[in-house]
Design goal:
By secondary structure, this protein is of the alpha+beta class. The protein contains 2 helices and 6 strands; from the N terminus they run αββαββββ. It has one domain: Alpha-Beta Plaits (2-Layer Sandwich), CATH 3.30.70.330. Strands 1-2-6-5 form a 4-stranded antiparallel β-sheet. It has a two-stranded antiparallel sheet with strand order 3-4. The radius of gyration is 14 Å and the shape is globular.
Length: 91
């Protein structure tokens, strides 16, 4: 992933594949520079699987490694459980 890629740019790129619930680039707290990885949360497992099986270039740099993870999150106040499908991306 490019060091210039912002969370907004990451979201905009992956919204071309399907509904993105959340997207963010991780930054170093001490110096404010990107740490070289980010996360994207998709609404659908099918979209997440499609993204993992494709090579991606964002801001003129190929995304190095993409891993798919699934988890169940609880949301308050209704304590409804939602299954999420997120990707971690690195340089």
């Amino acid at each position: 992933m490019s060091w210039e890629t912002s969370s907004d740019r990451l979201r905009a790129y992956f919204e071309n594949f399907g509904v993105v619930r959340e997207a963010f680039v991780s930054y170093n707290r001490n110096n404010g520079r990107p740490r070289g990885f980010g996360f994207v949360v998709f609404e659908s497992v099918e979209v997440a699987d499609k993204v993992v099986s494709t090579k991606h270039t964002i801001d003129r740099r190929e995304v190095g490694k993409i891993e798919r993870h699934s988890s169940t999150l609880s949301y308050t106040p209704h304590t409804a459980r939602t299954h999420t499908h997120f990707l971690s991306l690195s340089v």
